[in-house]
Amino acid sequence: MDDSIKKKMGELEEKKAEAEKILVLQKEFPDLRITYDRWRNARYVSKSVNARATEITLGFNCGCCPDSPLEARPYIETMGTKIFADPDSYCVGDRYDGDDDYRSVIAYTGWKDALNKHNISQQVMDKVENHLQHRAPKDYPYEYTERKPKRELECRPLVRARVASRIKT
Q1: Does some domain include residue 168?
Q2: Among 7, 38, 136, 158, which is least packed, fewest CB within 10 Å?
C-alpha cells in the first residue's frame, strides 16, 4: 500500500476513535460541547463539570502582551481527556509589570464571585487563591492587591481572534 494511502487510513482511524470517545463522553456529560480559543485549540466543555472540577490550568491569555489577563480553566480528566467547566475560562488577575520577570499577578476584585456564580468547586477556588497569593507583587500583601478587572471575569471563548467583550463599569 502506498505511504500516502497508509497515512490517510491512519488519520481516518484516529478520527473514528475520537468519535467513539465523544459518544462515550456524551453519556456522562449530556451537555458536552466543543469550544475553540483564538488559536483554534479545541476544548471539551460541560456545565456538569463545574462543581466536580478538581484541577485547573492557569496561564496568561497572551504571551507577548504585557496587559494579558491570567485565566483559570477548571477541569476534570476522564478517559485521558480534559473536560473543562462551562464557561471554560475565568479571568482572575492581571500581569504586574513592576517586576522584571512579569510573573507577578494582581488579583481581580470579584474573581471568587465569578467562580461561585458558576458553581465552581471550592477545591479549584483554593488552588486559584493559592496561586494568586504566591504571585502577588512583593511590595504588596495579597489582600491589598485586588483591583477591578479591565475585562469580563468570565473569559469568553475567543473564536478566530474574536476579542472578549469588555466589562461594563
Answers
A1: no
A2: 7
Mean pLDDT computed over 109-136:
92
- What is the reported pTM? 0.77
96 plus 107 within the same structural domain: yes
Assigned domain for 137 exists: yes
Same domain, 35 and 25: no
Residue 167: all three cell numbers together: 466589562
How far CA 59 is from CA of 16, 23, 68, in Å, comes to 32, 30, 10
Do 73 and 108 lie in a common domain? yes
What's the number of domains the chain is made of?
2
Q: Is position 82 within any domain? A: yes
Domain residues for the domain of 77 are 31-144
pLDDT band per the 50, 70, 90 thresholds, residue 101? low
**What average pLDDT does range 12-22 have in this prediction?**
91
pLDDT digits (tens, 9 = 90+) for 34-65: 998 888 889 999 999 999 999 999 998 877 77
